[in-house]
Amino acid sequence: MRRKKTLVVVSIILVLYLTILFFPRFPNNKGENPLLEDGSLPILIAHGGGNKEFPDNTLEAFYNAYSVDPDFMLETDVSLTKDGIIILSHDTTLDRKTNLLNQDIIDVNFADLVEQEVDFGYHNSVSPKSNGYNVTGEFTKYTNYLGEFVTPLDVQYPDGIIPRHESKFLVTTLEDLIINFPDNRINVEIKQSGETGLQALAAVIDLMEKHDEDYAAFSRIVLASFHKEIFGKLLDIKKTEHPELMLSPATEGVVKYFVLSKLGLDIFYFDKVAVLQVPTDEYNLRLDTLSFVSVAHRHNIAVHYWTIDDPEVMRHLISIDADGIMTNIPSLLKSVLDEYSGN
User: Fold this and answer.
1) pLDDT tens, position by position, 258-313
2) For domain 26-92+173-341, which CATH number applies: 3.20.20.190, 3.20.20.370, 3.40.50.300, 3.40.50.880?
3) What end-to-end distance do the CA atoms of the chain give, in Å?
4) Are 22 and 298 in contact (CB under 8 A)?
5) How far apart are CA 206 and CA 265, in angstroms?
6) DSSP label at 89?
7) Burial letters 64-86, b for 16+ CB under 10 A, else e
């Protein structure tokens, strides 16, 4: 009798599991997803504008990427200055990319960066430490992945655009990107954390609201943050103020998706995100698989991979129908994409 009951229970669980496996998935991101490239080649995403070709997170780097592929997607990191301006910077300090030391961006006025024509085209030598970077104060001018010095004059600008400076890579704002690249998608990561990060997020949302009518900000910009409090606020804004807001989840959201998709239980993945932005592997787990991508597509979620500078990895990601490939070398990725498009 006990064995019979066990078989009945197992049979019921199996039927329920099979039902779940084949039950239709509902879109986590409602409506058309502009980040999804299902059936097409992945979009070229320029990491920091392509920071191995031109200095990271500068307007010149993004114009260079535009010259490589006018349909590219911009990826940038942002922080809030003391006087309330959102500027582009991978770090929350200016130590590594300028010749300024011990300068937290939140303690610096944007107006002073402009007036002093601070150059964001530096390498500051660093040594590893447990948290962040240990800068040495040994400044050198930026060289690209070929070891060449570049200046703003080396960029192939669109017609009508002139260099901002002959030799310096000046500070760039998020507003610069929204206005100067009106047709391109933009990925924005909030780098600051805590109360400062929440203030930065509020300033980013204000910018998007300001430019939504003329520059379709909410249909082009996806927001992300690795900080739990920032991503939590993003979810709250999407729920209460801007349901059209496009989000990329923090690490916890990706882990949740991975586990549920592996178990075939992704029907229980409810996070309201538009894109999963992931490395090819994490903690010895492969994320660059056809099933990882195809399950996301069933939920109307795009999958973008970072940060890829290897042509063979690029070709593999194309083969699994990735929606976007983020790279430091836009010209290299474009040459690989051209192999498939016949250009």
Assistant:
1) 888 888 877 778 889 999 999 999 888 899 999 999 999 999 999 999 999 999 99
2) 3.20.20.190
3) 70
4) no
5) 37
6) -
7) bbbebbeebbbbbbbbbbeeebb
